[in-house]
Automatic annotation (TrEMBL):
Residues 32-92 form the RNA polymerase sigma-70 region domain. Coiled coil: none annotated. Pfam families: Sigma70_r2, Sigma70_r4_2. The keyword Coiled coil does not apply. Residues 134-180 form the RNA polymerase sigma factor 70 region 4 type domain. Belongs to the sigma-70 factor family. ECF subfamily. InterPro entries: RNA_pol_sigma-70-like, RNA_pol_sigma-70_dom, RNA_pol_sigma70_r2, RNA_pol_sigma70_r4_t2, RNA_pol_sigma_r2, RNA_pol_sigma_r3/r4-like, WH-like_DNA-bd_sf. This is RNA polymerase sigma factor. Keywords: Sigma factor, Transcription, Transcription regulation.
Amino acid sequence: MEIDPDLLAIQIAKAKEGDQKAFNFLLDSFWNDVYGFQLKRIQNENDAEDITIQTFSRAFDKIKTYDDRYKFKTWLITISKNLHVDLVRKQRSSLHAETTDEEERKVYRIPDDAPTPEDKLITEQNLSKLLRDIKQLKPHYQEVINLRYFQELSYKEISEHLKEPMNNVKVKLLRAKKLLAEIIQRKS
């Protein structure tokens, strides 16, 4: 599905200003492209999903550097390809560097202002039905939903608990909420 270039330009401009709904729009619009690209490269669903999450995390962190002379999808795919190359290099060298406190302080914060439509739909559901629906998600999505909504941890606390960068947590939570909302809507 081709996205109207004017709509895309507007959403990118809003994302550069920190608009959460614009980030959601971009994630929803390009998730399948980036995930499909990675799945063809590495032929492992979990690894492809992890790299896709990291891609959007990096893209949202660096959105202000996006140059609109190039296609947004191409920019995302390039980020994704570079992340995969970096991952392969790390695996080959088997060096696992820890994130420093200084790097953690530099993490770009994606605003989390108003509840999204997915948030509203999720909170309106009967708890037992909701728990059944959550169990249909992949385990790492179940975990992030549990930590955020049932244990009420902050993004920072979830990041520390999962030992993942905060942007990865935010993107993973966005994706988990979207998938959960789709499951709920299918049953309605």
